[in-house]
Design goal:
By secondary structure, this protein is of the alpha+beta class. The protein has helices at about 95-100, 140-145, 150-160, 180-185, 210-225, 240-250, 260-275, 320-335, 415-430, and strands at about 5-10, 15, 20-25, 30-35, 40-45, 55, 60-65, 230-235, 280-285, 285-290, 300, 300-305, 305-310, 310-315, 350-355, 375-390, 395-410. The strands form 5 sheets. The chain has a 6-stranded mixed β-sheet. Strand 3 (about 20-25) and strand 4 (about 30-35) form a beta hairpin. Helix 1 (about 95-100) packs across helix 5, helix 7 (about 260-275) packs across helix 8 and helix 7 crosses helix 9 (about 415-430). The longest helix is centred in the middle third of the chain and has 16 residues, at about 210-225. It is extended and about 105 Å long. Residues about 90-100, about 110-125 and about 140-145 have low confidence and may be disordered.
Length: about 425
């Protein structure tokens, strides 16, 4: 993080502050966090008002004084009096993108580097000098070549598509005025094209938020640096749905399990059985390593009003379904409210993206969340007719099925290994009692 936005001030000038008091809300590229004051004092002056954008880290935003200090003397205190304002530090897009998913010292190629990067350039050979074909006339400046026109006339000509070089000016010295642009008529006898002036815009430019920029950078980085391949399978969830219904019925309101809770647990079981998928590609001290994790921390994709976030359910292999359900609900709510802490969305060893709530989505593929090596995309549940044979004759049975698609990083996970992971996942989902073992 190099800059942030100022949210709502919870204190006003003159208010007394105690350790732990929330002073102001700070909006980062991933969340909105409360800034808590850690000392006793008095808020003497606010230097950055609510709504200020892209305030660089390290810039003063308020003046705090000890209790008993006359704060009236700070009424005219300005930002320049506090040392001035500095611009946010510029950094490469890949480093900015990686900042939101993992700390800088994790050693992966996707983490922001703490070492300066050297750039090398080869000097280009100078082209041979060529004699110009000048006619001997005086060179004209760009101002001399451009017709003399008022700024308003230039803007209006640009808006209406008027070739300003063909307009005869009526102002002093032949200067083109606004009235000249308005009176201009093309020399051609053909009817002029309909003017866009005065028409309502056909589009709206929406400024990209810090989070949207981060998401864009990370996804582009993932597709460029991680060779994706995809493995899909159709999985029967009929037994799982029956088990879910039975557990929810006997819960007496203490919990309510979702299909996604079972999917998260099944993914953790598959990651323990095929640990190569629960790994990441990293560079440590100039050496490339594949880090294989001993715990399964599942990142769960959550759609929020400001973009996609992936809060983490940690240690899923050791959690029961009710604990997973409670954590997913809590993390999802705080993600949508922008109240997640960085450690709650940075990291993870595997990701699940579930669009099963949308009945129109049969299947989809997801982009890997670096530095992880895999992500599972879960579609909606469909009833499928399955031919069956009984003593009474041939017939059909209806089976609830889901199409899942795994995206794997071929640098870390070979195709056969990705297929093995999908097979283990399918086996657990279709025999859900194994999750209880």
């Amino acid at each position: 993080m190099t800059s942030g936005n100022i949210g709502t001030w919870q204190k006003a000038a003159g208010d007394t502050l105690a350790p732990g008091d929330v002073l102001v809300e700070i909006e980062t590229d991933k969340a909105q966090m409360d800034f808590e004051f850690q000392e006793d004092g008095v808020l003497a002056k606010i230097l950055k008002e609510s709504g200020e954008k892209d305030v660089a880290v390290g810039n003063p935003i308020a003046v705090m004084v000890e209790e008993g200090t006359d704060i009236a003397s700070f009424e005219s205190f300005t930002l320049d009096d506090a040392g001035g304002e500095k611009a946010p530090e510029k950094k490469e897009s890949t480093e900015e993108a990686a900042e939101s998913s993992e700390p800088a010292d994790t050693g992966s190629q996707t983490a922001p580097s703490t070492l300066p990067k050297k750039e090398s350039r080869e000097e280009e050979s100078a082209p041979e000098a060529q004699e110009s074909e000048s006619k001997g006339g005086r060179l004209q400046t760009s101002l001399e070549r451009e017709p003399s026109a008022s700024p308003l006339a230039k803007a209006l000509a640009l808006e209406r598509g008027v070739p300003i070089g063909q307009v005869k000016g009526s102002g002093p010295g032949g200067r083109i005025t606004k009235q000249d642009i308005e009176k201009y008529k093309p020399a051609s006898s053909a009817a002029p094209a309909p003017s866009a002036a005065g028409a309502a815009p056909t589009y709206e430019d929406i400024p990209a938020s810090s989070m949207r920029k981060t998401i864009a950078n990370r996804l582009q980085q993932s597709m460029n640096q991680n060779p994706h391949y995809f493995v899909a399978a159709t999985v029967s969830v009929s037994k799982l749905l029956k088990l879910r219904q039975a557990l929810n019925t006997s819960a007496d309101g203490q919990y309510r399990l979702s299909v996604n809770d079972f999917m998260i647990k099944a993914a953790a079981v598959a990651c323990k059985k095929v640990p190569a998928v629960n790994s990441s590609w990293r560079e440590i001290d100039g050496q490339i390593v594949i880090r294989q994790h001993n715990v399964v921390d599942i990142s769960v994709a959550v759609a929020t009003p400001i973009g996609l976030m992936t809060p983490i359910v940690k240690g899923v292999e050791g959690l029961g379904l009710s604990s997973i359900s409670a954590q997913v609900k809590d993390l999802g709510k705080r993600a949508r409210d922008g109240k997640l802490k960085p450690e709650e969305y940075q990291g993870g060893t595997f990701t699940i993206s579930n669009m099963g709530m949308n009945a129109a989505i049969d299947r989809f593929t997801a982009v890997i969340n670096p530095p992880q090596a895999g992500i599972l995309a879960v579609g909606t549940t469909k009833k499928v007719a399955i031919p069956s044979s009984t003593e009474e004759g041939n017939g059909v049975e209806w089976d609830d099925q889901v199409v899942v698609t795994g995206s794997f990083d071929h640098k870390v996970v070979d195709g056969a290994v990705g297929g093995e992971w999908i097979r283990e996942f399918k086996k657990v989902v279709e025999n859900p009692l194994e999750m209880m073992l």
